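Quick one: structure for this chain?
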Amino acid sequence: MTLRYGDAMPERDLFQRLYRAIRSTTEICGHGDGLERSGEWRVRIGRP
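Got it. Here's what it folds into:
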């Protein structure tokens, strides 16, 4: 996100950068391929 320690900006700008950099939680929780590797990352809506 091209930020350095101590950089300051409005919260709105920070979140816009964040959402542009990370389009989906799959990029983080699914390791980019969407495969579920751990039950802790599972969304608990209607799933055991």
